[in-house]
Amino acid sequence: MEEKEQKKYLKEKEKLVTKVGYLQRVLKEYKVPVMIVFEGVHASGKGRLSNELLLALDSRYTKFYATHAPTETERRKPFLWQYFVNSPSHQEIYIYYRSWYSLYIAMKNNIIKDSLYDGSKLLLQEIRNFEKTLRNDGTELIKFYVDIEEDKQKEHIRRMYDNPRTMWKAQEYDRDNDEDYKREMEKIVLEDQNSWHRIKYETSFVSVNEVLETIVNRLEKRLKKEKKRAEEEPEKRDGFFNGKYPDILKKYEGNHDLSKEDYKDRLDRLQKEMRDIQYTLYERKIPLILVFEGWDAAGKGGNIKRIIQQLDPTGYEISTTAAPTDIELRHHYLWRFWKQVPKTGHISIYDRSWYGRVMVERVEGFASNKDVERAYEEINDFETSLTNFGAIVLKFFIHISKEEQLKRFEARQADENKVWKITDEDWRNREKWDLYEEAINDMLDKTNIKKAPWLVINGNNKRYARITVLETVITACTERFLDK
Amino acid sequence: MEEKEQKKYLKEKEKLVTKVGYLQRVLKEYKVPVMIVFEGVHASGKGRLSNELLLALDSRYTKFYATHAPTETERRKPFLWQYFVNSPSHQEIYIYYRSWYSLYIAMKNNIIKDSLYDGSKLLLQEIRNFEKTLRNDGTELIKFYVDIEEDKQKEHIRRMYDNPRTMWKAQEYDRDNDEDYKREMEKIVLEDQNSWHRIKYETSFVSVNEVLETIVNRLEKRLKKEKKRAEEEPEKRDGFFNGKYPDILKKYEGNHDLSKEDYKDRLDRLQKEMRDIQYTLYERKIPLILVFEGWDAAGKGGNIKRIIQQLDPTGYEISTTAAPTDIELRHHYLWRFWKQVPKTGHISIYDRSWYGRVMVERVEGFASNKDVERAYEEINDFETSLTNFGAIVLKFFIHISKEEQLKRFEARQADENKVWKITDEDWRNREKWDLYEEAINDMLDKTNIKKAPWLVINGNNKRYARITVLETVITACTERFLDK
């Protein structure tokens, strides 16, 4: 290219860089997370292109994520774990150098061994869910597929061979033939053409500008949408949907009894059995996820204690769910739960969980009605990712009557060692019992998927509840052990 | 043990559990982080003891950290990285099942290969610095060494052999002889007796209570101290020390010139050289850490851009340092920088850094004078950990004159594409020029360690500064490449 033409391109680039910078600053105000994906064959110039983009952005709000062969840790987590965890907050742009598509192809072609996934049929579905979940949450997702003519590619690689410092990298390219990658990517791009921008790499002058221009167009379009939306009425957040829901809780009322001696004997036996189960889970690399939800003072904590009492502490974690931190509030609400997903062979126990979205956040109006309605499907997708990964997922709702709750509140208030457990918030929540009842029944109805069932436990009698929970966990695990 | 005696122990335990729970709640209000370490030989009962402790604590504010053979990721980070990153916030208790001592012994005995550390002589020093840094920051560190009589240990292991579900674990114990571990730990405990609590494991009844009682005593003592401290006058935070400091900045004043053509030629050559250096760093697994500090508008960002312009984006990261998040504020101020420490072979560039502690936090009184004075040593220790790990650490301070800053502020304000870069805060900082000058000179004086030197660059001429920084980086890397 002549110097004169080069200068023309550089001048154009300068303008584009200014525009991209401007758009990044404005969209940050609108809290738009942006994900930009670069897929492409070896030596196609995607490193150059993504680096130029990185230079054009404000490094305080931009991250570059290079996809790598999964580490030990990542291989012990569900398929898309690394990408969910490494996704932008509401003020950031993330650039992905190779992405979940590369990971998918590598897993499909069995380059990545030791995976819990048999076959790849579910993985594309998980990718679709992942992108949908983030898009629905407001993420702008821009995907580039960079291609290059074969002789240009060869020339790039030859130049790397000629430099003694980069020779090792060129050799890596030779070893790691990417014909498979190219064939798969072409198929993916072809089947979903509208969501991909195809770049045929020319020179850095031409192609950098093409990338920048595409991004400017996409972000300008998005900005227009955001401005329009800002003028619309805010979404309702009163927690009321159609007012119809099946009364599931009702089926689990009444009283059970269990004598103290009977309880003690059974508890000890079940706890020892639970410890043995832990070792088998560990040996067979099966993750066990136990979710505990329930009314205040229903006895979630007491149930959890009985489960872990004889366990090996190096193999379980308890996750408690408090109010989200500032960073967590700037992400999809499932982000913090993705971060805590257990690794293979471990037991993860949740004392409250992601279901806060459809309970307290619904009742208190922290989330809009639309967000809540969307959450049921997202939660089902999330849990399906966990069961696809091989996890046993059991969700307990500990149900007590309104009278029983009052009795327990008053008992706590009277005991100097327990009075700290009861707060004004508990009393306020109690006043909203009916609203919670509605939300809970909706939740039990809409998120009771076969592989991750809800188990409502009558908790009016603590001893009965503890024994029942332990028995349920043990039975589910034992069935799985027989399964495969 | 007779049943009657067992009951006595259980009753005593209940009281201790109540006390521990109370102390945890109160010390949380005083913002005391607590670390509890369990070291001990195989089958000594430390799992049982630490699990009982875990059950006694409030799971919302307690974490259990099990030391494991370092993962790939951990092996590419400095020695104590995993423990610094996994340390409690000001409201948490962390229990360590095996700890940095186990890791040290494993590295010393060369069980852990692939390490960048030659020899172990520096590692004990790093442990001392680590504990000192956290203790000075208010951490209560309680260390248990659990021992057991040989025949009791054998009995424990035999029982594991007899259970088909735990047999594999007993076999692991047999394979992994821990004679070395025991010898080393005995030495460590003997040399520092005051800081260790030795538990001779009897039965779970006796030993659990012994552990709980020790913790109650330690925490009660600490609580007393905290109550006393609360009555004392708050620490000064005016940023004034003795008012004497060497005027280091003065040596780097004046003007340099560099013609545009000369600049362009040299820049292009140096950037290509920098790219080659990146490949060599990667191949030789050497981390490169570049810290950029300087006056507002000194040109830190422009300097950084010139360094990365031709680099491979998969091998460098830019860390910008904004105001800390709520979680970061609840940890030692170095915590967030430990989290970002680069892995082997990568380049990490800091646009502002941990030096904020001794600049803005000193000048604005966000940290007390005592905290700031302590910070110099802590920073030196931190950077020494990085250089021990094999990192090249270079710290640039870009110095411009007060007049030059004014010119740049005004130019930014006049340019519609740059006006966003200048904020009221910049003008406020400018008014405190003299205070900053004092803080900067102190910093340059007290943290200029040989392996991680300060390089003051005159930035009045941007072109000169950029070329000088690039040349400095290239020279330092080239020297290292010749070194070994």
Describe this structure in words.
2 copies of one chain form a homodimer. Chain A is of the alpha/beta class and 484 residues long. The first copy, chain A, folds into 2 domains: 3-231, Rossmann fold (3-Layer(aba) Sandwich), CATH 3.40.50.300; 249-483, P-loop containing nucleotide triphosphate hydrolases (Rossmann fold). Chain A has helices spanning 3-29, 46-56, 72-75, 81-85, 100-108, 121-136, 150-162, 167-175, 179-191, 204-231, 260-284, 300-308, 326-329, 335-339, 360-363, 369-388, 402-414, 424-431, 433-446, 462-483; strands spanning 34-40, 62-66, 93-97, 140-147, 196-200, 288-294, 316-320, 347-351, 392-399, 454-458. In chain A, the strands form 2 sheets. In chain A, strands 2-3-1-4-5 form a 5-stranded parallel sheet, sandwiched between helices. A 5-stranded parallel sheet of chain A has the order 7-8-6-9-10, sandwiched between helices. Chain A is elongated. The N and C termini of chain A lie far apart (63 Å). The mean pLDDT of chain A is 93. The interface between A and B is large, with 47 and 46 residues.
